[in-house]
Amino acid sequence: MRSFTTYLLKAAIALPILFSLNSCRRETGPNPTTQSTVYYQHYTVTYDKDTNTTRATAQFRTDTATGYIHTLTENESLNINKKLAGYNAATREYTFSSNKLVNVEYVFTKNAGRQFLNTIRTTDTNSLSFPTIFPSNINQNSGMTINWDGRTLDTNERLFIVVNDMVHPPVYKELIAGVWQYGSGDLTNLTPGDIKVSLELLRTLPLHQADTNSSGRMEIILRTSRMITLL
Fold it and tell me: What's the pLDDT tens digit per position in 163-177?
């Protein structure tokens, strides 16, 4: 009887410790990658109409859009427009930029030597311009409604207004039912004065070449901006 009681006591102590170790391993352990690991490819190209510049980024995850972020190994590479991509450690993204509006060709070489080619072209996006009636100033403490009078968006498009004082985090508002709606408290964290207002058209496209049974997406952001006054 004593040995059975001792066994139960040891089990009661050991199980929580084992569970705790397993929990820590799941939360903090690295995601294993092998030759058979598949990668979700996420490519984004931003075209700025006003500065005629192109900025491209890439990020890889294991299996799905919510998988572990993958940093390329020494046996892997990403070339963008035939040049080895840069790397931003803060955002964990691979980067490329150009002082022109250019097509962007991504060539991802996986550890087994397989290559995946995906291209975003300047012609993959649509036209974008400010509404005919647009305020030259915004009152910081008042709500505001801005109507969109442009074309009907495609099903794979979203349109945002971005208000940026270049000091604080920018304020994004998405077009909903043809309207951008600002509440009275939406802009109170910004500094009054001259501010930059941008329209950003986000268009999502499927990959040309995905990794096996994984998937991915390509995003094109077309931006145009103007300065207004925040009162």
Answer: 999 999 999 999 999
